[in-house]
Write a structure and sequence with these properties.
This protein is α+β, with helices and mostly antiparallel strands. The chain is 19% helix and 36% strand. Strand 6 and strand 7 form a beta hairpin. 21% of the residues are buried. Copper (II) ion binds next to loops.
């Protein structure tokens, strides 16, 4: 085979892969309904102490098997640091940052949000297994970043 034939083959392969990825993306968004998390709202980071729901961080039961968990990230802790929830419950995490950019990641789950000052991040999750799950800040936020963590206790 000469070099032009190789080039054409790789160009064709690239085109096919591009088409396959586009098809997978369309399938995921249209058929499976998977969307990127959107903006869940805005909040003044300096008024968190007086702005619901951030005036009362923690776990709140909103229905028989439904809980809201309100979290504030700040240098260098999460409030609350310990979250207790029942196994199998529908959980909605509502979080923001009080100062700089933080991350909110619960190990072994797909709960992974950016905490952005001024913006509200929201995600839903259900724990199927009881246990302790580590929460980590995965966005470098300053000298105490490595100490910034917490845990979810699923019982
Ligand atoms: Cu951090």
């Amino acid at each position: 085979m000469n070099i032009e034939t190789f080039e054409k083959a790789f160009l064709a392969l690239g085109g096919v892969l591009l088409g396959a990825c586009l098809a997978a993306l369309l399938f995921a968004s249209v058929v499976m309904g998977i969307q990127l998390p959107g903006r869940a709202g805005e909040v003044d980071p300096e008024q968190l102490a007086t702005t619901p729901p951030f005036d009362q961080p923690g776990v709140r039961q909103v229905d028989a098997n439904k809980y809201e968990i309100v979290v504030i990230g700040r240098a260098f802790n999460f409030e609350p640091e310990e979250i207790r929830v029942p196994v199998g419950a529908d959980l909605t995490f509502i979080a923001t940052s009080q100062d700089v950019l933080h991350g909110f990641n619960i190990e072994k789950t797909r709960v992974n949000m950016m905490l952005i000052p001024g913006q509200i991040s929201r995600t839903v999750y259900t724990f199927d297994e009881p246990g302790e799950y580590l929460i980590i800040c995965h966005e470098y936020c300053g000298v105490g970043h490595h100490t910034m963590g917490g845990k979810v206790i699923v019982e």
